[in-house]
Write a sequence for this structure.
């Protein structure tokens, strides 16, 4: 199957009509290059849709996910770099619509 060694999130929203070629152009614009076995995540402005572009070393894969209710937790473009690296756990939480940025603090229970 598709091997993904690193996952990157593009903070700036993108038009979800963008296909693989336009997403690939955006990857090169934001990240400099499209690395083999890296995944790149994009969201629309409302945060209700995401697209994942993966370069597998031979070509690119493009997948989309849409939430029927709610929105994906996406960083504000005002106070973040244009791209972020995600851990596998953060990616899993993000695609489920969970607060992926708070995973480290949510994994520990402390006495108040």
């Amino acid at each position: 199957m598709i091997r993904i060694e690193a996952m990157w999130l593009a903070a700036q929203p993108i038009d979800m009509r963008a296909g693989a070629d336009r997403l690939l152009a955006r990857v090169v614009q934001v990240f400099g290059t499209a690395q083999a076995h890296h995944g790149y995540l994009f969201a629309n402005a409302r945060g209700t849709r995401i697209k994942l572009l993966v370069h597998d070393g031979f070509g690119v894969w493009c997948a989309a996910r849409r939430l029927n209710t709610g929105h994906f937790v996406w960083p504000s473009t005002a106070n973040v770099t244009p791209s972020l690296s995600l851990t596998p756990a953060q990616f899993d939480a993000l695609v489920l619509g969970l607060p992926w940025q708070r995973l480290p603090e949510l994994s520990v229970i402390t006495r108040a």
User: Anything to note?
Assistant: The longest helix spans residues 20-31. The mean pLDDT is 84. The two ends are 45 Å apart (CA to CA).
